[in-house]
Amino acid sequence: MQNLPFEVSDKDIQGLSAEQLSDLLRRLLKEEINHHQLQVIQFHVPGAINTADGGEDGSIELAEDPPQGCVLTNMRTVFQCKATDLSPSACKKEILDHCGTALKPLVKVCLDSGGGYVLFLRSSLTNQQIQKRIHAIREAIRSTSELYADTAPIHIFDANKIRDWTNQFLAAIVAVQHWHGRRPLQGLRTWNDWSGDQDFIDFPFVHNKEIDKQINLLRSKLSKPQAVCRLLGLSGLGKTRLVLEAFRPDKASTTGGDFSHEVVYLDVNGGENPHLPDTFISWRQSGLSGLLVVDNCPLSLHESLKKHVKHKDSKIRLLTLHTDPEEQSSDIIYKMTRMPDELIREMISPGSSKRYDADLNRVVKYAQGFPQMAVMIFRASEDGCQSLGNIVDDNLLDRLLGPKVARGSPERQVLEACSLFTMVGFERDREDEGKYVAEHFCRMEWNQFFEHVERTLKPRQLVQASGRFIRVEPSPLAIRLAADWWRGCRPDRRNQFLTDALPGTLSLALWRRIAQLDSLTQIKESVQVLCEDGNYFGNEEALNSDTKSQLFRCLAAAHPEAALATMERVFAHWTREKFLSVGPGRRNLIWTLERLCFRKEHFYRASRLLMAFAAAENESYANNATGIFLQLFEIFLAGTEASLEERMPVLIEALRHPDDYYRRLGIRGLERSLYKGPVMRIGGSEQFGSGPPRQQWFPCNQEEVNTYWSAVLKCLADTAMQNIDLSLDSRSIIGKHLDKLGQQLPQEMKSVFSRIIEKYGPVWPEALESIHRALKAKKIKMTTSHRTNLEEWLAQLTPPREAVADCLRIMVSIPPDQLERYEDGQWINRSTLVAIALAEELAPSFQHWAGHLQTLFKGEQRQGYSFGKRLGEVMDDRRALINCALDILADLEPCKANPMVLAAFLDGIRTDSPDLVQETLDRITNHPTLSPFLVDLIRIAGSPSDAERLYSLVLKEQISSEQLSSLNGYFMCRVSFEELIVFCQRLVEYDVEKAWVALDFLGWFCHGNESRYFMSRDIIRSFLIHPNLRLEAVPRYSGMEIIHWHELSIKMLEENDPELACHITKLIIDSGDYESYNQDLFGYILPVLEILLIRFQRVVWPMLADVLIGQESSARFFLGYFIRSKNDGEGSHPGVLFTSLPEDLIIQWCREHPDRAPGLIARTMPLFDQDGGDWRWHSFAKRFIDEFGDSEEILSQINVNMGCYSYFGEISQYYKMKRQAFYKLRDHKSTKVLRWAQQHIEDLNSTIIKADAKNQESEWDV
């Protein structure tokens, strides 16, 4: 008898391998579980059947007796699979242990509990043969003295019984036929076969709550008999993968309850497949059970199959998938949407572990929520595909577009036209862009264009909207369509479209798409023409234009060679002065050159142009031409494919340039070449076209870096040895990196070091600093040879004592930092000890080194105090040094002079030679050139009596207020309280600036010291009410003046002093009566004002109220500013007036002064408060609106108040919260308030729509 196509025969079973037989048992048991909906306690079938198993190759335990018709007859059953023919005697041995005296352990456990034993054989047996084997098994049980030898459920499933069991289930039939190499229906696959597709293996399935919800919904729907479901979504959204994963078995499950062994998958690829319904009928008639998944199934085929599934005798369930999101059907359980970018990234990341983040970002960006697109882009990058348009073949194109957008249709025409742009304005004020595309690219009426987008392209999800714009997605589809369009466009028409003045941002959108078509010959031909001399981009006016330079940036991505050649031709003969004049287009030109420098083949030419812009720098951005140029020479993240060796000629050329600006760029470039610390770079320049990003150069090993550094060191050394302005800079750079260069290039560094020391001597502070830092930081990791070199160099950098000038320079002026911590926790700077030792050594022989004293009185003197003080303590000929020092200081320009050593010297002799100190200070006081140094000298070496000297200089106006303010340390340490008070009182009386210096001194004196405050209360009060202390004149010398006023005022107002409160209130009022108001004072004045209102309401409020309702003035304006509320919802502040005064008082004041008070309160009152996440009207505002809201003027002033706000976050959210508050006024008793609220709600609705659109557009880089 001929077998039906969907049956297996006993011969098919006999031909199975041991593993296949075990797999079939597993499948059949799972099918049985699902078919009869068995409640399973335990289920197990291992993959191998030839290992020691204790008598069990499979087992199943049910929670209750199996139903009638089930193959299983017991709650517990053990199976033994045998791929060999077993004789009766062999069957007898099979159930016994190796001794033959007892049952195998697992068999005994099962039979003891009343379970059954099944021998699962691939042999074909007659009934008589089966009974002989069962009898032999019972004899074996009887031999073990078990009482159930005659009653135990013993079964033998031979090839015939297994055949009949298999032919009940569609998936099992397909599996067996597949093992035998037969496919009765082309493309029919089991779940295991289907899950082996390479993409499913290479890329993990990623989850989120929505995906898990879809999977659970699928499982739930398809668990029911005769279930029919349909899943829709554009091709590439992951429908097939979702279904596959929905049926994936749980490896941790021990109950066997999954669908995978019931599933049969068939991809009809959009065809009707006329034989499938007839095949379906045969399955039903054969009583087959299973779950059929039909991919790319058109609706007509779905309906045909559904009819057979719903037949009363059918045991098959159906799930179909299709790509038409517009389809309507009652069986649709879900329409697939795009996958979030973070899931796309998670899916691709395991495969891209060796790829750059830029490539991963590109995959996510262009996939636009299509998982299949992400996989295809990833694969294309691996295969070296240079255009994303190439990954969309004709088959995928047809599946994405569907029959409604077929070639030649108006919908296809609109879609292709939109694909030419990265986005097209479509609504409101951007509608003119869509109209232009409709008229000039599609040659159709705007209404037709609009209808095709709205009725076909958007529902099919081929066009996405964001705010006022639309674009074709996914990007690979748009690129493919755009490429097809340009290929069919005549050259003259191409050039016209590329140069036409398009409305809005269409030109930029067009050229951004052009940038993605770098592999298209037609585009390169047109770009070449447009870049010709005198053409669209071929002149300096075009490149220096803000608009055209943006388009030129896009051009460089599509045709970098043409862009570079154009820039070389235009800028070839420009002078530095002309480069300085590049303005509007400069940013885009710099970014274009940054992109061109990335390419190895263009690096030299592009970097020379970039250097010309950098030498004529006129921007202060970090990523200006200079910043980008210098980064090109770093070791890591340099932003170029060019190797270190290929970059070096550019720096050499810069160093040899006749222009000093170029040479200094070269030196700075050499310095950046030696940097190997943390680096950062903004990406983007590595992307050309739509292909994979280029990868910047990275050193393979330290040797490559050393070769580069060797060339850099040679350039620096050669420059250092030349007697030019750059010599000092070169030596400084070598010195800073001496440790690193000495470690990596020891022989070369030794030679360079010797040459520099021989020519310039041992004064090399940068090298000295580098050595000390290295010896301190690398005590363990440093090699012995490197440490030896450093110590030798350190010895050479330590000048001999007879070279006094060098000693003073190295040990006093610019010594290295040698701060160290001793074991007892104390810190010591060894440079300080060295300076002190030098002072002790030089003190007896001043006359021998007096000629070098000038070194100590100009420029930096890092150890000037330590050296000068010790010198004063141990030197005998003190007057001689003082005389020399004063002569030197008198001859130096004040801006270059540094009196620190002299000040420290005087401090050193202050104790035992006070008269000499005073004599010196007298000389300085009376010397017009030296008097500016007096403050520094007194600050360090002054005595209490010097306060009088200082005031005499104040009277002579020979000392500024800023200089005086630096003396707070002198007055805290050297002057008594009484002397301080006298001095401060005289300053307060002198003028406004000195009054603030006096208050500052008192503030420092009392800060954190209650006893000093109580000593000074009276004098502080007198200062606070003094007319010279005016808030509008507060200086910023120490930066603490207003802070001390704030602290002292609050402290004094703790006492019951209405007179002081009135004065400070007037001071605050008057502070706003000046044009040059300092808003920095606001934060310090406001707390004082709040205390005034709370503690002294009776006297302070009338003063403020009079100003607030008085005539227009700056004082009234600024006082209103002080009391206003911060109406920002979260983080809002009700305003000082409304936190300090009772509401009744403010309301009553408004009633008494209806002409001015309500309007002012409307402008300054708190408006909103938060109730959980909602906004509501502040209690005062609600009360105020209820009483005064019937006035149009008051409502207008509230509008003014609402116009002053700040908000962090999405602005649309602010408007929505504001709208919530107005909703609460819709039942107000006042008709005017109702109209006002409704108008605000309407305005906010419109504003929210615009704000939401703007938020969406920002994601598209609008």
Task: Give a structural overview.
The protein is α/β, with parallel strands linked by helices and 1262 residues long. It is 56% helix and 6% strand. It is built from 65 helices and 18 strands. The strands form five sheets. Strands 6-8-9-10-7-11 form a six-stranded mixed β-sheet, with helices on both faces. Strands 1-2-3-4-5 form a five-stranded mixed β-sheet, with helices on both faces. Strands 12-14-13 form a three-stranded antiparallel β-sheet. Strand 17 (1168-1171) and strand 18 form a beta hairpin. Helix 12 (275-285) packs parallel to helix 13 (299-309), helix 31 (625-631) crosses helix 33 (660-673) and helix 40 (804-813) runs antiparallel to helix 41 (830-842).
- Principal-axes geometry comes out as extended
* Order of adjacent strands in the largest pleated sheet: 6-8-9-10-7-11
Helix content, binned percent: 55-70%
Terminal-residue CA separation: 73 Å
Q: How many helical elements?
A: 65
Q: Strand portion, in percent? A: 5-15%
Overall strand count = 18
C-alpha-based Rg, rounded = 45 Å
Average pLDDT rating: 90
Uncertain stretches: none
What structural class do helix, strand and pairing data support? alpha/beta
Note the main sheet. Answer: 6 strands, mixed
Describe the structure using short key phrases.
1262 residues, alpha/beta, Trna Endonuclease, Chain: A, domain 1, Rossmann fold, 6-stranded mixed β-sheet, 5-stranded mixed β-sheet, 65 helices, 18 strands, 56% helix, extended
